[in-house]
Amino acid sequence: MPTIASGFKLSNGVRIPCIGFGTWQIPDDDELVAHIRDAIEIGYRHIDTAHIYGNERGVGRAVRTCGLPREKLFVTSKLWNTDRGYDGTIAAFNRTLETLGLDYLDLYLIHWPAARGEPMTWQSINSGTWRAMEDLYKSGCVRAIGVSNFLVHHLVPLLARATIAPMVNQIEFHPGYMQRPTVEFCMKRGIQIEAWSPLGRGALIAHPVLKEIAAAHGVTSAQAALRWCLQHGAAALPKSLNHERRVQNADLFGFSLTEEEMQRLDNLPQTGFSGLDPDHVTF
Ligand SMILES: NC(=O)c1ccc[n+]([C@@H]2O[C@H](COP(=O)([O-])OP(=O)(O)OC[C@H]3O[C@@H](n4cnc5c(N)ncnc54)[C@H](OP(=O)(O)O)[C@@H]3O)[C@@H](O)[C@H]2O)c1
To answer: Looking at the domain assignment, is residue 281 inside a domain?
Structure first.
């Protein structure tokens, strides 16, 4: 894979650039637009947002004004928990497109399984939501559909009722929190993993094993962690408000981790975990 714009191929043939620019907690203002435009200049072609981030307007403005044709960029947004269900999903998708000022999305995800708030009904709510996602996909206004934070026991009932399987599952994935059962389940079924918080929100950077492995390759801990994601076949979504670190997070192709280094990172004790358990997140 020569650059961060190179992609993994989804089950429907769409290519997803292997590194995306994360935008969580970046306020919707001129600075957000400047950060995204700078990322695009560096070579990022994939931008990750969500309705709940409250910054779709700025993301759309950056995409529309960056000077690249729309089809050169890959834009993801996510359906918020309170908008689930068939009608809610269609309405929320249309609002998202309008806020972004775009006429299609590259990827739309159900943000959380939200299983706890409705212990009796979450499966049928998610199933109605998924039917809407399938209809949006069939209508051509989104190039790929998927889920986020779905563990195996959330995926099984969804897959049982789906006519189109999710193409992506975006989960927390980094050395120190690799969620092996979910990753293995998805990979067996051709569901692409996307790694959120691939740097453990920065908390991973100082881990001595990661530092040692990074030093052996003359790279930073962040680069080693992102390379670990890519070598596992996962697309990754690092966020940085700093130009130099954005450049660094895009420079991942001049080295590769050995099998032994991969295993050492696989076996890191829990580090940098967000604390967000999909079975307990209701918001
Ligand atoms: N689907 C979901 O439920 C979900 C949940 C969480 C996140 N996400 C997505 O994943 C994206 C990334 O996750 P995240 O924002 O939580 O965390 P992250 O990318 O793991 O880490 C971001 C933190 O790491 C620092 N950092 C970035 N590059 C660095 C480098 N090269 N060296 C040292 N420090 C570095 C940043 O500081 P500086 O800004 O100062 O560089 C920031 O504090 C989000 O923005 C969002 O798009 C999705």
So the answer is: no
* Residue whose tokens read 């949006």: 136
Instruction: Give the distance (Å) from ligand 1 centre to CA of residue 202.
Output: 7
pLDDT tens digits, 120-149: 788 889 999 999 999 999 999 999 999 999
Beta bridge partners of 142: 105
Which residue's CA is the nearest one to ligand 1's atom 27? 240
Kindly report, residue by residue over 215-245, the tens digit of the pLDDT. Answer: 999 999 999 999 999 999 999 999 999 999 9
Residue 273 lies in a domain: no
Residues 44, 53, 108, 177: which is the catalytic one? 53
Residue 1 lies inside a defined structural domain of this protein? no
38 three-state secondary structure:
helix
Q: Residue 112, Cβ neighbours under 10 Å: how many? A: 26
Q: Is residue 131 part of a domain?
A: yes
CATH of the domain at 71: 3.20.20.100
Question: How many structural domains does the chain have?
Answer: 1
For residue 71, the enclosing domain spans 7-266
- Among 199, 273, 281, the mutation site with the greatest number of ligand 1 atoms within 8 A of its Cβ is 199
Q: How far apart are CA 173 and CA 233, in angstroms?
A: 11
Model confidence at 119, pLDDT cuts 50, 70, 90, reads: low
Q: Is 86 a catalytic residue?
A: no
